[in-house]
Every structure is written in C-alpha cells, then in structure tokens.
Amino acid sequence: MRWTSTPVTEIKGSLRAPGDKSCSHRALILAGLADGRSEISGLLEGDDVKKTGDAMAALGAGIEQTGAGKWLVSGVGRAGLQAPVRPLDFGNSGTGSRLIMGVIAGHSITATLIGDTSLSSRPMARVMRPLEKMGARFEASSGDRLPLQETGRDPLEAIHYSPPQASAQVKSCLLLAGLRAQGITTVYEPRPTRDHSERMLSGFGADVRVKRDGAGNVVSIAGGQRLTGQRTEVPGDPSSVAFLATAAMLSPRGGIVVEGTMSNATRDGFFRAVEMMGGCVGAEDAGTAAGERLIDMSFETSALNGINVPEALVPAMIDEFPILAVLAAFASGETRISGAEELRVKESDRISATINMLRANGVDVEEQADGFIVQGCGGPVPGGGFIETHHDHRIAMSALVMGTASQKPVTIDDASMIATSYPAFFRDMQMIGANLSESAP
Ligand code: S3P
User: Fold this and answer.
1) What's the domain count of the chain?
2) Does ligand 1 come within 6 angstroms of the Cβ of 107?
3) pLDDT the model gives residue 85
4) Among candidate residues 184, 211, 233, the one where a domain is terminated
5) Is 167 in the pocket of ligand 1 (CB under 6 A)?
6) Which among 163, 157, 221, 169 is positioned nearest to 194, based on CA atoms?
7) 218 and 201, same structural domain?
8) pLDDT for position 277
9) Are residues 156 and 255 in the same domain?
C-alpha cells in the first residue's frame, strides 16, 4: 500500500522513545548465549529484532515473550548452540545476520543463512574474511552474499584485525567470535563505531578492554569467557527519535518531548549536526539503562542553516543521513556530506535513494561518490513527490516526515519496511499531529 503525508501546521506532544534496535539485537544474542535466564524489558519488537530472536531460538535458546516489550530468555550456556534444522531467515537485517555469523563461527555446527532481496544483495565478505582467518568456513552466493552456508569451529583462533570500513557490525561479529577463540581477539578501529556490544558484553560479565589510540579505539576480548544471565532494560533509540525530532523542528508550530532516549557519543552525530545547523534541541538526564545514559529530549521549531558535516561525525550518524538530508532541504544554504561511502551498501544505496527522494520533491541536490550536496530551500520544499523506497525503512520514514512540512503532500510506494525498525512509527507520528493516510496503488 502507498502512504501519503499531507502537510500540517503543528507537531506537538510528549512520547517515549521506542527501544533501540542495535541494543535489542545484542540483548537477545547475549542472553541467548549466557548461562541461566535473562529478563529483557523495553525490547524493540520490530521485524529485524524478531528475526534475531527466532534465529537464537533455532540455535537452542529459549525465547519467550512475557508482556509488551518483555522477554524471558534461557541461554544455551555451557551446552553451546545446537545446529538449526532449517535455514535461519534474517529478513532485512544486516545486524542480526552479521552478529550471529560471529556467534555460529565458534561452534562445531553448520547453518544456512537467508534473507530478503535487500539483505541478499548486501556484502558479507566484510565478516566472512576475518571469520575465515579465525577458522570458520563459508559457501556463499556469488559476490559473497546470502544465501550462505557457514560451518563453525570450536575453538577458533584469535585474530588481530583492522576492518577496512568503520563498522560496528564487523567489530561486534568479531568480539562474539572472540568469546570462543583461543587467545585474545583485538579489533582496531581508526574511527570509533557504536560501542553497545562492548558495554553489553561487560554487563553480561565478560571482560572487554577498550583503549583509546589517537582518534580511534583498540577493543580486545579474551576467549573462553562465560556470560551470565541478566536483567536488562533496552534504552530508547536515537535513530528513531531523529524522525520525530525533524518533524518538530520543521513544523511552523513544533514542540515535542521524547523521553528515555539513549545518549551515547557513538550514536549522537545527528543531534550534534543539528545543533551546528541551529536546531532547538534540549536534553535532561533521565537515568541509565543497559549501561547507557538516558536523556529526555525536546525539539522545537527551528530556523536551520546548511553546514559541512564533519567527516569525524559520520560513524556516529551513519543511519541518519536520509533524515538529515530532509532537514538540509528546508535549511538556508548548502549542506555537504562526504566520507559516507558506506551508505552505498545499506538496506538500499542510500546516497542514490536519498538524492531521488529530494529531487522528486523539487530540491536541488548533487551526487558525490561518498555523499551529496544539498541546496537548501530556506523554508518549505515544494513536495508533491512520489518516492520509491527501495525496501528501505529509513527512506520511507524520511519521505513521510518531509511531507509533514512541505508545500504539497509526499507519497511513498510502500511502508511495510518501517516495521523492521520502528513498528510504532505511524502511531507516534499521528500522536504528535502528522496526517498520514493509506491508499491503493
Ligand atoms: C549497526 C551498525 C551499523 C548501522 C546498523 C546497525 C549495529 O552498520 O548502520 O543500522 O547495530 O551494529 P555498520 O556496522 O554496517 O556500519
């Protein structure tokens, strides 16, 4: 079904941030590996995270829902994983598939991994190559893609590895494999990426060492460590909050409060860029969850200016470029994004999908190999566009947010993928005043 976002003059309200997708995957995986039982609350019940839960269950963990966002997990512990009888289906999820490839690698089992069209076109060599060095074996589809078959080895050999791309998925995959390797596995990161695996592994009782190295990090984990079941609360997702924040800042009468957002320097690049653009953002301490700081955030109507997004911010806002492009389109002056070539291999080619989204709505934008340059309209963009989302949830949500403040409505070809990361998106957007309606093609 198509969805249309019709411009509104007010975005107001107070709501709670949905559970963080990255932390939800990790909570299910670590709880599924641990000795004993874990209680998880605030889990994001998006399609991606559910696939990770299904995969951990197929590998032998007990995964049971006990309430809204509440899950009870019995970890496999000392027994280790069992070989799955059917292929593990990761749907649209790069994170679930790549992290669980690290988990399977250290067990003497064989598993087949499959995914949807988008996931089956994404590169897996980035995790296969280092895992092969550690002792795992793969038979993959051409171009090192899914479907693939993985055979693990117990124990693996530890490695010292510097991923060619800044990727938390690669780092996390190797830390999970490193848990079952002989020796100390070390990942060198020239630019630090999201550190939820490090924090959550520590929370489950593992000793993970992180050393600063210039602008980067050296992360290491000794093999043979055991995890212990925990009670964990998933913090709110700053990547999902970015959509609500943008709707409020672009609205003629905008003012929202979002409670319980995770505040983490490896994830807050979008909010730092927004402040550089002149966005009205407030934050108040709101405690902690899963070893992460929480804040209640507020956003108000903002007069924004274009900026050169510092390349150092890119890893901390890697998922926020489509929605930042929407802000840039309404801002005065030019916004330049570079050093973001990883966007080419996300759920879609997000550089080209973002450019098409802006152009279809009358915005002038120039493509670069590693980013794009947006000429801001200095106010509401023309709108009126029909957007192909390319099965990409973040393109779909960005386009609908754009329509809340553009001159004419914005329509998307399909909204089903939004459920992968933000199943309550429509409820939350409508609660703060967006006008979203469904129509047949
Ligand atoms: C994620 C890491 C990032 C991000 C993805 C979630 C994670 O991917 O884009 O949405 O949870 O580790 P990369 O590791 O490919 O940068």
Assistant:
1) 2
2) no
3) 98
4) 233
5) yes
6) 169
7) yes
8) 98
9) no
Q: With CA atoms as reference, report the closest residue to 140 among 183, 111, 174.
A: 111
Percent of the chain with pLDDT over 90: 98
Confidence (pTM): 0.98
Atom of ligand 1 nearest to the CA of 194: 12
266 lines ligand 1 (CB under 6 A): no
Task: Indicate which CATH number applies to the domain containing 285.
Answer: 3.65.10.10
Question: Which pLDDT does position 440 carry in this prediction?
Answer: 86
- Ligand 1 near 172 CB (within 6 A): yes
**Pocket of ligand 1, candidates 20, 30, 44, 167: which has the most ligand atoms within 8 Å of its Cβ, to mutate?**
167
The residues annotated as belonging to the active site are 319
Which of 197, 213, 233 is the last residue in one of the domains? Answer: 233
Is the same domain home to 262 and 281? Answer: yes
CA R_g for the chain: 21
Domain that holds residue 371: 2-19+235-439
Residues 239-270, buried b or exposed e (16+ Cβ, 10 A)?
bbbbbbbbbbbbbeebbbbbbbbbbbebbbbb
Characterize the bridge pairing of strands 37-41 and 70-74: antiparallel
